[in-house]
Amino acid sequence: MDAAPAPAPAPMLADVVAVLDGLYPPSTAEGWDAVGLVAGDPAAPVRKVLFAVDPVADVVDEAVEWGADLVVTHHPLFLRGVHSVAATTFKGTVVHRLLAAGCALHVAHTNADAAPRGVADALADLLGITGRRPLVAHDGDEDRGIGRVGRLAAPTTLGDFARHVAEVLPATAQGVRLAGDPDATVATVAVVGGSGDSLFDAVRAAAADVYVTADLRHHPASELRERALFEARRPGSDGPTTPATPYLVDVAHFASEWPWLSYAAKDLVERLPEGTVTTRVSTRGTDPWTARVASPGR
Questions:
Q1: pTM above the 0.85 mark?
Q2: Which of 32, 128, 142, 265 is deepest in the core (most CB within 10 A)?
Q3: Is the CB of residue 214 less than 8 Å from the CB of residue 253?
């Protein structure tokens, strides 16, 4: 009787990081960002990889319980320089607990935002946006850049579109907010995962009917909508005579970026020797908001 073939050797952490850096080149991250390997021995073997949005205590719990060798998160643990990773702080504790369990930590942030099949593409796919291009291209690269803009398969109303967004994204306490007439027609959509109100000018230049992003602040959102309403009026008219676009759909930051995790997990496995690495997408909600109280009568 022939002996069963020996399992393929596990790739080293350095091999896995090389694949991740190929998918999400660190050189494409924003200058202020902190991406790449945060903790771990490049020579250590990797069999289990957990993907999550945030490097927080709940994710560490999941990684330790599952026996992960590597956690890949979207958000950095350390965005600014530090002088100590002692376990006397909550961030230092994350590092100590992971390393004590033999688990490394790697970050793909704005480099994953910009990448093909990155954060923006995953969000656009989930919302049914086709024929898309980067909202802001990366150094002339037609496939890489911040955000995406494209068209829906068929025009719909802003209200129905916002309801669809709420149905397909992870449930959060915030839910989905919108700015604009719920009965207005929308066909062209721009998306940016995470905080996106710094890109309003690019959304306007793209002539998007509606913009889906997160963390919209009062003043930028108010000014964008006031400008849209002003420009939609013809001199002497009492109200808008053309669509007052772009409308806004504001979602939770965590929810807008979570869809990317399954893309990253699939793309990593496909680029490693078959059967060597198992991946898991964390389903632990790391959105910081836990409840919402609606205004009376709303």
A1: yes
A2: 265
A3: yes
